[in-house]
Amino acid sequence: MLVVGVTGGIGSGKTTVTDLFAAQGIEIVDADVIARSIFDSTSATGQQALAAVAAKFGPQALLADGELDRAWLRQHIFTHPEAKQWLNELTHPLIRQQILEQLAQASSPYVILSAPLLVENRLTQLCDRVLVVDVDEHHQRQRTLTRDQVNASQVDAIMAAQASRTERLAAADNVIDNNGEPAALTKQVERLHELYLRLALAKADNN
């Protein structure tokens, strides 16, 4: 099956774009959703991951009910690079396995892998095409401040930790410009949907 990787920096509108593809009947494998599920205490994998985090960082990494304190952990890894590396080494193999399983189970004409760190984590290796949702840094910062109710320094730290706009665009086969109004996205998505349907059909014929 044709796999289209969709990525964009924080505040780029990536989720809005993937929702538009979903409205066309295309299945979305969302790396963010998978990453959050890694610490689901109702699963054996989640329990093991939570235990590893508590052993590494202490009880302050967990909430009173035993769930992950995501706000504490997010703040901690931004100020402790070695902690971020350790967490990545714990979670990335688990996330990748779940991604592969969900891609294999998809049944739409093509499937989208949505991942904010598609380029950084080399998930482009799993994709036939890479679609970047592009927005300039001013819009990116303002949209994130409004949406997430966080301070500017936190936004800057998140943006600095992600691939640069130039790096993302260098990896792109296709680009959606989201510097304008949301309504402008629909036509761009419809045009790309038709392209991906043709590419998916050609790939199926070659196989």
From TrEMBL:
GO biological process: coenzyme A biosynthetic process
Keyword Nucleotide-binding carried by entry: yes
One Pfam family matching this protein: CoaE
One MF annotation (Gene Ontology) recorded for this entry: ATP binding
UniProtKB keywords: ATP-binding, Coenzyme A biosynthesis, Cytoplasm, Kinase, Nucleotide-binding, Transferase
Pathway assigned to this chain's UniProt record: Cofactor biosynthesis; coenzyme A biosynthesis; CoA from (R)-pantothenate: step 5/5
GO CC aspect terms: cytoplasm
UniProt main location, coarse: cytoplasm
Positions bound to ATP: G11, S12, G13, K14, T15, T16
Keyword Zinc annotated: no
Reaction(s) catalysed by this chain's protein: 3'-dephospho-CoA + ATP = ADP + CoA + H(+)
Enzyme Commission number(s): 2.7.1.24
UniProt-listed InterPro entries: Depp_CoAkinase, P-loop_NTPase
Subcellular location, record wording: Cytoplasm
PANTHER family: BIFUNCTIONAL COENZYME A SYNTHASE-RELATED, DEPHOSPHO-COA KINASE-RELATED
Family stated for the protein in its record: Belongs to the CoaE family.
Function comment: Catalyzes the phosphorylation of the 3'-hydroxyl group of dephosphocoenzyme A to form coenzyme A.
HAMAP family tied to this protein: Dephospho_CoA_kinase
Name listed for the protein in its UniProt record: Dephospho-CoA kinase
Native source organism of the sequence: Pseudidiomarina maritima
Lineage, broadest ranks: Bacteria, Pseudomonadati, Pseudomonadota, Gammaproteobacteria, Alteromonadales
